[in-house]
Structures are given as C-alpha cells and as structure tokens.
Amino acid sequence: MKYLIDKDKDALIIVDVQRDFCSGGSLPVPEGEKIVPILNKYIEKFSKAGALIVATRDWHPPNHVSFKGYGGIWPPHCIQGTPGAEFHPDLNLPKEAKIISKATLADKEAYSGFDGTGLEIELKNAGIQRVFIGGLATDYCVKSTVLDALKIGFETVLLIDAIKGVDINPGDSERAIKEMIERGAKKALLSDFENY
Questions:
Q1: Phi/psi class of residue 165: alpha, beta or left (left: φ > 0; alpha: ψ in -120 to 50)?
Q2: Rounded Cα–Cα distance for residues 152 and 155 (Å)
Q3: 12, 18 in Cβ contact below 8 A?
Q4: 163 - beta bridge partners?
C-alpha cells in the first residue's frame, strides 16, 4: 500500500528514542539507535508535508515504581532532567515537534504515550485521524501506544522499519507486532510513502 501524508489528518508519533534506551544507556534496546536514521527520513517526509510530529519520552521521577529499587523490573532510566532522559542526539526533531512526557508520577507506570498525557486531546484538537508510529521499544512502549491509538479510534500505521524491541523473552517483538496487526494496525515501510 502507498501512503500519501495528509497534513490535516496525519501525525507521526516517535516513541521514546532516548539516550537510556540506546547503546551506552542504562536500559538499552539492542541496536536501538539503528532506527534513528530511518526515523529522520520519516521526520523529513512529515515535515515537508507540514504534518504534525509528536515525540514521547519517559520522564521518570528518581523513585519511580518501575525501578527495581521501588518494586519494578527495570534499572533506573530516563530520570527527569538527566542526560539519559534526553532524546538521542542524532534524532532530528524539528523545533515545532510536540513533546509528550509520560510516566511522570512516582507511583504510576505508563508505557503508552496516551496514558495520562493529554496526547489524545492534542491529536483530536488538531483534527488528526491517522497516526504513524515508530520508536522504542517494539514490545513495550510502542506496542502500548499503538494499542491505545487503535482503542481510541485512530487509524494506526506501524512503521516496521523504524522500531526495535527489547526481547526479554526471545520472540517478544515478533509477538508484539503480530498482536498489533491482529488488533487492526497496518504496516508500512519508508518505501511505501509517496516522495516529498
């Protein structure tokens, strides 16, 4: 399928491409940074089309419930205001990109970019009907964001060449992709987009 970006109805959502989730970070997704050049090409296409670009980020307090020391399963990561919480330095986010911070409360876990962030209202107010989603990690925050987008009623397209998973259990990412597609997400690659 070919996609033509509609600046009035389409948005690009980039999920959690932060230093801590890339090589050298405290919770690296294997080869997570490898999707950055591809995401930059998507950003370029959506920018040229004049479409909305959103970047979500984990923005945890130091005592977040997801951290091992506070009953969670993860090492401390993406703590508010630390270098690890910054977007990957090679990610070319435009100045006008909307930044959405999630999991900002110590006692509340939030994998989805829609969970307690106001993103749904932002998108609806902007007249968005279709979202294109890529980022980190396939089997956690990308999956949760995609499933919530579908639940809310957005037409949802998963950018297959712009996601990477953690795969704590081998095959987690493949299973996550399968579940997203079964629930109604469509798949796309960079080559499926009309040139801008």
A1: beta
A2: 9
A3: no
A4: 135
Cis peptide before 137 (omega within 30 of 0): yes
Nearest Cα neighbor of 102 from 110, 94, 93 is: 110
Residue keyed to tokens 């600046």: 7
Average pLDDT over residues 46-54: 97
Q: Which of 84, 95, 73 is nearest to 19 (CA)?
A: 84
- The identity of residue 189, as a single letter, is L
Which domains, and CATH codes, for the chain? 10-191 (3.40.50.850)
The alpha helices in 33-164, defined as continuous H runs, are: 36-49, 119-125, 143-152
Which residues belong to the active site?
Answer: 16, 102, 141
The CA distance from 52 to 97, in Å, is 7
Closest CA to 54 of 161, 108, 105, 130: 130
Record the pTM: 0.97
List b or e across 142-165, with b for residues whose CB sees 16 or more CB atoms inside 10 angstroms.
bbbbbbbbbeeebbbbbbbbbbbb
pLDDT tens per residue, range 116-135: 999 999 999 999 999 999 99
